Amino acid sequence: AALFMESARKGSIVSRANSIGSTSASSVPNTDDEDSDYHQEPYKESYKDRRRRAHTQAEQKRRDAIKKGYDDLQAIVPTCEQQDFSIGSQKLSKAIVLQKTIDYIQFLHKEKKKQEEEVSTLRKDVMALKIMKVNYEQIVKAHQDNPNEGKDQVSDEVKFNVFQGIMDSLFQSFNASISVTSFQELSACVFSWIEEHCKPQTLRDIVIGVLHQLKSQLY
Q1: Do 193 and 148 contact (CB within 8 A), yes or no?
Q2: CA gap 107, 219 in Å, rounded
Q3: Minimum mean pLDDT among 3-17, 18-32, 72-86, 94-108: which range?
């Protein structure tokens, strides 16, 4: 009986100790969770910092690329290098650089169109020269095949006299009709003179008159 009572007393003490321990344990904060939160919070901040740093680097790279583009435009476009007295020694703004670039591109388009027109004209001239070359080659060949042909043709002096007579007649009407006071009047008078005095029938009458005059002089 004494042993049983002693065991019961020890069991009661252990039970109370356990209940006190559990109560104390429940009242003590969970330091493991706090340690876990404490270590996790700097990781989140570090991740945000990395994202912020990556975004800053990307933005800086974009700005550097834009700046390099404007610098390249200023180096390429000749008008950007010229001194602008309205601005002075100030650095050209991006708007001015873009406007000067647009103006220069439009200028290049006009020059390209002008050069294309010149090339087209030169090609026509080359084609005409080729045709003339073929004709002269045929004339030379015909003369070589028949060297006696053409001896009875009109002399160069007579040809010149015919040409001179036609030009003298045209110049008389030209001088009487054309005003050289200004370029505008000259242009207007020239077209009017061509329409009035260079008609096919008028030119035919002039040529016939010159030929009759030369015929009377020669014979």
Answers
A1: no
A2: 65
A3: 18-32
Q: How far apart are CA 169 and CA 33, in angstroms?
A: 120
Cα separation, 67 vs 71, whole angstroms:
6
pLDDT for position 108 = 93
SS3 147: coil
Tokens describing residue 194: 């061509």
Alpha helices in the chain (DSSP H): 2-27, 31-76, 78-81, 94-145, 156-177, 183-197, 200-218
pTM of the model: 0.41
Confidence of residue 183 (pLDDT cuts 50, 70, 90): confident
Q: Which residues contact 190 (CB under 8 A, 6 or more apart)?
A: 178
- pLDDT (average), residues 157-182: 87
Residue spans per domain, the chain: 44-113, 157-218
* Tally of CA atoms within 13 A in the half-sphere of 58 that contains its CB: 6
Helix runs in 77-93, H state only = 78-81
Matching residue, tokens 């103006």: 103
Asked if 121 contacts 113 with a C-beta cutoff of 8 angstroms, the reply is no
| CATH code assigned to 44-113 | 4.10.280.10
